Amino acid sequence: MQKTVSLTVNGKPASATVEGRTLLVQLLRETLGLTGTHVGCDTSQCGACVVHVDGEAVKSCTLLAVQADGRDIRTIEGVADGDELHPMQEAFRDNHALQCGFCTPGMIMSALDLVKNNSDPSDHEIREYLEGNFCRCTGYHNIVLAIKAGAAAMRGAPAPGGHD
Amino acid sequence: MAAIGTPVRRREDYRFLTGQGTYTDDINRPGQLYAYILRSPHAHARINGIETKAAAGAPGVVAIFTGAEMAAEGIGGLPCGWLINSKDGSPMKEPPHPVLADGRVRHVGDPVAVIIADTLANARDAAEKIAVDYAIEPAVVDPAAAAKPGAPQVWPAEAPGNVCYDWSLGDLAATDAAIAKAARIVKLDLVNNRLIPNAMEPRAAIGEFDRATGEHTLFTTSQNPHVIRLLMGAFVLHIPESKLRVVAPDVGGGFGSKIYHYAEEAIVTWAAGKVRKPVKWTAERSESFMSDAHGRDHVTHVELALDADNKFTGLKVSTVANMGAYLSTFATCIPTYLYGTLLAGTYTTPAIYVETKAVFTHTVPVDAYRGAGRPEATFLLERIVDLAADELGMDPAELRRKNFIPQNGFPYQTPVALQYDSGDYQTTLATAMEAADYAGFETRRSEAAARGKLRGIGIATYIEACGIAPSAVVGSLGARAGLFESAEVRVHPTGSITVLTGSHSHGQGHETTFSQLVADGLGVPIESIEIVHGDTNKIPYGMGTYGSRSLAVGGSAIVKAMDKVVAKGRKIAAHLLEAAEADIEFKDGAFTVAGTDRSKSLAEVALTAYVPHNFPHDELEPGLDETAFYDPKNFTYPSGAHIAEIEIDPDTGHLIVCSFTASDDFGRIINPMIVAGQVHGGLAQGIGQALLEGCVYDKSTGQLLTGSYNDYAMPRADDLPSFALSTNVTLCTHNPLGVKGCGEAGAIGAPAALTNAIVDALKAYGVRHVEMPATPERLWRVIHQHRPAQAAE
């Protein structure tokens, strides 16, 4: 069964005809060509596909494309301001919080969701929040530092010195 | 220049941070079709027939292929890259490794048929209409069980008794003599648990065929595109190199699992030629679990002999190693030359003997996974040393110090073939002990005990052989390839530089580290340098990235190519400046007549090389573009000391890692930020092995029980501590950079450090050893099994 969905993606209207079984992540990657959102598993655990749906972090492999009809989607491609990196992206680069880069889009989308609700998270809060995002390269050490630094930059505070 | 040794921010990050990386699955080719691979649900079965008629008529299906079609076209099997000879001199048993099943399946996930359709969904739907008539046969999954008489046979004709080889290294008589006159013999049986690599990017491959040129292209998630081109072209599909292009674009982690030539690469390349359209395959994670080569899986008995002065006098090791159902590309060298050769560790043990029996089982092939042989060697050695210290009532640090190869003992020839060039194990250990406040541990243990917690501390020292490898040496040991690396340094007419490297980056940051090397070597800004890798149509023939070799071997090739550029540039500059070549100095990007201010920049020299109006044509060819191949003289020998401190709740078995301290010697460090990142990642995987990860097959059915992230415990952010790192530098003496390699260290040292800490925490219970992964359930059982003994005391 085919259905047409209309949604907003990174501030722009988009529409596509999809099958009932098409996942949001497939719509983003295959139909809209937004390949920054990655698929790392088939059990909704790895978090490589996290996007924002109406401002909330969602694993885009858990949502059918038809469920995204009329919703406002933000992907990693919509985070930077033109060529200017978002402070959270900058913090990831500054703290070497990415290696192969595959988990990174999902990590950043999750980090932004965390900071939206907790502008000054502790190491412990960050580690607990990241339960749903796997990284196989960094051991999370630098991701924790980056999220603290990104959160500080976003609230206009001086850069933190390191781990708690 | 300041470029070397500074934490330059990574040049590759911008594209990854903005979602603009190009991983294989991000690539879509015009007219592309999709492949779905039907895999065996059984560990061992005879295939009586495959009925594809209904599937062939399903919507969108373009073609269905089975092993029969491939065999009919003379498609070869996947080759193994390393020949091991048994103790008796006979070559290893090397059964076929068909791309698609040849009438029998030998592990869950063995590929049986490929369905090619216009969409992935249609291909997957059609696969459900294929009826395979399986006659299920008994399976064996455990290596020790496979080695026993009466075990189900994986290759009854080709490898009777499931034995691939029975190999040994070292002096048996000398080792037995050392054991016979030992003041103390310490013995231990242990298992090195089977792991599943789990790079976050699942494997993917796109095959493409150009009818006009006859060229095949394969986009693949590989750590070494030229190796894939050679193996697939020469042995499987019989395509000459000139008609086969292999591209490994951005690759989302490898850890060894993307070294090997996999069936799916051959399937999509061959099928694209058959259907004359691009064919794409991307693994689902569940396919990754049952088709990516696994790691480790050893069962070992070890004996350490000590004299009355507590010096190690002999080490005897006997291991059964699991190969899986087929031989993966480098499977055979892992439990032999990357394992047995490391058993001297950091110690002066004069007599060592190791034997490894490699066996086939009905499981996914096992091959190199981060560390590859060296974690297994380190684990048994550092466990037996700790056990010896415990039996002697000695501080484990003191026993290690007593037996370390002294700093003035280099070069050090081990009894197991390797010659270490440099190291300083005493300082490295002392640095780690100070950083971990080893001296203050008993206070912390008492404090934890007052809270009802069992606190333990564990040390592991390690040595690894990296910078793989001197071609002549590995050739004499059975390698079927050379292990040099290539580089081309292309100085463009106006002075910008492209470096083409045979190394491959799948997270290691080569675009940054290699740029730092070139900025330093040629005195140019980093921004003027581009690093190119991963495309056999662009780069010189190269061997790729594994075994912590990229900087030591690939970086040395870049240095060698730069030396050629400078040598030629010096001649051109001498001509332009009308000076003797011997008087020309090259410094900070300029050729200068010594003692004068007469100078030509590298860019001016390059322009002259490409616009050779005023040029020494009699002596030189135009152009400033040099290629070098670097074949290392020896392995490099990174070493280190890792200290773990943990706390266990005896009521629940729950464990927390309180701290993890690593002091490592990687030789010269080019980018300390990237090096630290490599250590962090290795430690996470090592801690994962020690505490969380374990591949489990059902022993009776051969089913993979840990086939998803629901069942296989990946380390998550809240499982891990922050790490305390330091480095202690001794330079590698035989490569031009003095570098040793850092990619695998964490995975090598951490499992032993953690397990030693756990056994230390449980020593009041009389526990001698705890197998990995030390999950809360396992710890709880160990504690409860030993409680009665304690109560009786």
Can you give me a brief rundown of this structure?
The complex is a heterodimer of chains A (164) and B (793). Chain A is α+β, with helices and mostly antiparallel strands and 164 residues long.
SSE inventory with pairings:
The complex is a heterodimer of chains A (about 160) and B (about 800).
Chain A: E1 2-9, E2 12-19, H1 24-31, E3 50-53, E4 56-59, E5 72-74, H2 87-94, H3 104-117, H4 123-129, H5 141-154
Parallel strand pairs in A: 1-5
Antiparallel strand pairs in A: 1-2, 3-4, 3-5
Helix pairs in contact in A: 2-5
Chain B: H1 13-17, E1 33-39, E2 45-51, H2 53-56, E3 61-66, H3 67-72, E4 104-105, E5 111-117, H4 120-127, E6 131-136, H5 143-146, E7 163-170, H6 172-180, E8 184-192, E9 204-210, E10 215-220, H7 225-236, E11 244-247, H8 263-275, E12 279-282, H9 285-291, E13 298-306, E14 312-324, E15 351-360, H10 374-392, H11 396-403, E16 412-413, E17 419-420, H12 425-435, H13 441-450, E18 454-463, H14 471-476, E19 485-491, E20 497-501, H15 510-522, E21 529-532, H16 550-577, E22 584-587, E23 590-593, E24 599-601, H17 602-610, E25 625-630, E26 639-648, E27 655-665, H18 672-691, E28 723-727, H19 745-761, H20 776-792
Parallel strand pairs in B: 1-12, 10-11, 14-15, 20-21, 27-28
Antiparallel strand pairs in B: 1-5, 2-4, 2-6, 3-5, 7-15, 8-13, 9-10, 9-12, 13-14, 16-17, 18-26, 19-20, 19-25, 22-23, 23-24, 26-27
Helix pairs in contact in B: 10-11, 10-19, 15-16, 16-17, 18-19
